């Protein structure tokens, strides 16, 4: 069983880091005010406000910030300011044994996907494909906060991951499988192929989502995952939204799913509201879930945090 980090409570301390692309200082400061209003304390990594081009700071410095939060006994959650790109270049500089011995809640999506899955694979730590600092706004949908705090602040289990009303979960290939869930942003996962941080999908339920990518690029990425064998031994597949993804050659995102994934015959669910969409389900990477594509149900079978 994977390691569950200690749960988050009001009054706890959240450590902010910028492990990928930089974020403007005024946005960081505004979102921090929301965290404070929710009753949390906040500490800042040394390089949270850094702005050095595509990535916020050199690889070692961004990794240093992450490790500082893991070793600080007062920090209960590590919250990236944003994703962007470049997160994977700091992965070689993390100490995964220290992380294993000091489990903390780590949450995020987009390029944070590579950090979430690597922490699960190398430190056996459950992480959360859920909110980042940029999402802590006064006008954030209640659904997003409900999903996030249920996953990180309660021991509720089993719990169903439900879409908001009016957005149905849709099953395309019937089946019923149980196993750890992994995945996240499609681009970020493809970028790990052929590296020491390549995602392990064997015996796992694979979840994917994307944003701002034309369907020609989605086609390339799904083909690359297929040819890399990432669908061969996975138990089932969940496809989240592809937000703002232009149609290429008259071929939609759904067309690609029908053409490339349905024929695999694996239990397949689509339309999960996640990550780059307006509504964001909280997916616990590494936790055991049941994917029931006969009854259109996705259920987290274990608590994802501990007392």
TrEMBL record:
UniProt family annotation: Belongs to the peptidase S66 family.
Keyword Protease: yes
Phylogenetic placement of the source organism: Bacteria, Bacillati, Bacillota, Bacilli, Bacillales
One Gene Ontology MF term: muramoyltetrapeptide carboxypeptidase activity
Classification via Pfam families: Peptidase_S66 (PF02016), Peptidase_S66C (PF17676)
UniProt name for this protein: Muramoyltetrapeptide carboxypeptidase
InterPro entries in alphabetical order: Carboxypeptidase_A_C_sf, Class_I_gatase-like, LdcA_N, Peptidase_S66_N, Peptidase_S66C, S66_fam
Keyword terms of this UniProt record: Carboxypeptidase, Hydrolase, Protease, Serine protease
Domain LD-carboxypeptidase N-terminal: 14-129
Key word Hydrolase present: yes
Source organism of this protein record: Caldalkalibacillus uzonensis
Domain (LD-carboxypeptidase C-terminal): residue spans on this chain: 178-291
CDD domains: Peptidase_S66 (cd07025)
UniProt-listed Enzyme Commission number(s): 3.4.17.13
């Amino acid at each position: 069983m994977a390691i569950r980090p200690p749960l988050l409570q009001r009054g706890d301390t959240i450590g902010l880091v910028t492990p990928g692309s930089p974020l403007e200082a005024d946005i960081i400061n505004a979102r921090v005010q929301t965290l404070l209003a929710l009753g949390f304390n906040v500490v800042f990594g040394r390089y949270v406000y850094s702005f050095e081009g595509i990535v916020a700071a050199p690889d070692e410095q961004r990794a240093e910030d992450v490790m500082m939060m893991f070793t600080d006994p007062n920090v209960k959650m590590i919250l990236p300011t944003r994703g962007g790109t470049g997160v994977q270049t700091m992965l070689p500089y993390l100490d995964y044994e220290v992380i294993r011995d000091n489990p903390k809640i780590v949450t995020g999506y987009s390029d944070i996907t590579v950090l979430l899955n690597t922490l699960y694979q190398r430190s056996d730590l459950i992480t959360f494909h859920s909110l980042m600092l940029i999402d802590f706004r006064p006008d954030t949908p209640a659904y997003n906060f409900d999903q996030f705090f249920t996953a990180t602040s309660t021991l509720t289990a089993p719990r169903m991951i439900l879409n908001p009303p009016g957005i149905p979960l849709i099953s395309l290939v019937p089946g019923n499988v149980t196993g750890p869930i992994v995945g996240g942003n499609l681009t970020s996962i493809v970028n790990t192929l052929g590296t020491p941080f390549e995602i392990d999908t064997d015996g796992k339920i694979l979840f994917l989502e994307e944003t701002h990518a034309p369907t020609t690029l989605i086609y390339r990425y799904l083909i690359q995952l297929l040819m890399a064998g990432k669908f061969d031994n996975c138990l089932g597949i969940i496809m989240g939204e592809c937000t703002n993804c232009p149609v290429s050659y008259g071929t939609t995102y759904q067309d690609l799913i029908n053409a490339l994934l349905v024929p695999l015959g694996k239990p397949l669910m689509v339309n999960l509201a996640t990550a780059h969409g307006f509504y964001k389900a909280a997916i616990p990477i590494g936790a055991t879930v049941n994917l029931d594509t006969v009854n259109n149900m996705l259920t987290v079978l274990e608590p994802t945090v501990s007392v």
